[in-house]
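Appendix B. Raw example, untouched.
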Amino acid sequence: MVHAWRKVINLQKRELWSKSTMVLDRKIAFIDLQNETIKTESIPLDLREKFLGGRGINMYLLSRRYTPDLDPLSPQNPLIFGAGLLTGTLGFGSRINITSKSPESGHLGDSNMGGAFGAELVKTGFSHLLIKEKSKRPVYLFIRDNEVQIRDASKLQGLDALETQRKIRLELGDEKIQVACIGQAGENLVRFASIRSGLKNSAGRTGMGAVMGSKNLKAVAVRGTLDMKVAEPKKYLRCYLGNLKKLMGTKWANALSKNGTPLLFHNANTMGFLSVRNNQYTSVGSRGYLLEAEALDPYSTGMVACFSCPVHCRHRLWIKEGKYEGMRVEGPEYASIGSLGTKLGCMDLQDIIYATELCNRYGLDTISTGTYIAWAMELYQRGIIDQELTEVPLIWGDGKLICEIIHRIANRKGFGDILAQGPYAKSFFGEESSEYLLGVKNFPLEMTDERLPKSFALGMATASRGACHMRSRPSIDVLGLPEEVLKKIYGGPISKELNSYSGKGRMVWWHEVLNALCDAIGFCRFLTVFSSPHAPQYNEFSRLILLCTGLKLTPGALKRIGERICTLERIMLVRDGISRPDDTLPKRYFEEPIPEGPAKGEVISKEGFNSMLDEYYRLHGWDKNGRPRKTTLRKLGLG
């Protein structure tokens, strides 16, 4: 694998060594859609040193505009695009964060997207965009080499995400243009609409597509030809190759290259932490083979990667026969298989692939879409709602029905118009319905059930954007590593038992800080200490940043940057009134032991949960109510 990548790198050497613009020279564009004005500024060096880029600088920008009474769908709510500090360079990912106040939860909104859009954005000379106000007409942005244009998008209205990208490339006459856009769901202000790029790249969570739609903004198209100077290219290349060899020597990276994220399905099913029928069950037992990674092999035409990533973790699929004959897609990921599959009782892989593709084209978050449909199905099962409201019988596992509901949600038709409101649909379903919408901070749970893995449970309860596996989930916990190894990684005692509470507060805190840093760098979550103890972390990041940008940031300084981002996010939540009682889990987790399967009897102990939460707060430097202490704010320069 490394040998093959040396060939690719040799082809890039001349380009890498002839860069003319420093990475740190990337600018921010402030775009006022109402007045159609654009202002560009350099990003101060001290801001880079405190927040790096990506999620870090995005949160700094959002925090200066964030108030409890800010309506997420109002013109005043900013929409912020932010590429990671190293996005666009030769490295281990090319991520971009899109940030705003969430129309889904009503709190902090943020989503991370891969693919090639972020890399193309930084080649235009910009790393961040802050978009404010609302356009009087449908528009899209075209950004090319230090120039931002606001263009008419009236002919793009009503198009899905793939058609929108194709039309923009045709209009501008350049197939290399990268586009981030919304489909019909974003235009119709579905509260969990996503922003889409390429065949499957999604800024899916927290409804950023609805924010984009509320601004009458259909798309952001980017095409850059500017080069970027690397501070010490030869040393950077050697450092990169060393880290590449280490990473691709891990079992995790090789398995990910072969099977993609669907490989995670097997452990979740056999250990008992899947969401099945809205978390009424946690395993499908021997039927799991129908949805495991190997089940995609008959349809797979190969694996592809995001820009500059050595791990090819996404499937390209071609369904050659059956009810969806001729369909060619990318994905689905593990999250979509769980959310649109087992969570809804659906075990037909072709139905799941098609439902995922519908979400991708409409611009819907697959996780939230599956969760809200599952919620409605359980309400129907229990007689809390009936067919007079739902229009059709909500039967578990009916793939055709699932796809029909997706059509109705995206186009806000009939019962779909109610589900398009996300958690606010409780006002239509009645107070009794709240108990069955499993969520945290008004944001729905995902494709797993956390009653067995206690560290996962704490991560769900404390994630800054609401229930979320990508903020702090220590997937490494399922490996059962020796406790001396865990202590070496985390700097304190950790139990190796998945259902133990001991040390799991430390584990979640550690991953939360690391993940915040990775989002600021642009580094892919799956290539860190997510599922492998041998993946790159602070020492490697420090060296890569120095050789690429010239910034001298020690591993300790990088940890503080991660902590600074987490604490700044917490400050915004505190402004919204979020405190300890909100860092909790659904009633089902505390009161209903898992009824059957490999995790039978598992439940969350309130005493054990509170012990984890106390440890997590203490390590962050927050008080027992989850408020950052003044000493912590001073230490992090957030006073």
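End of appendix B.
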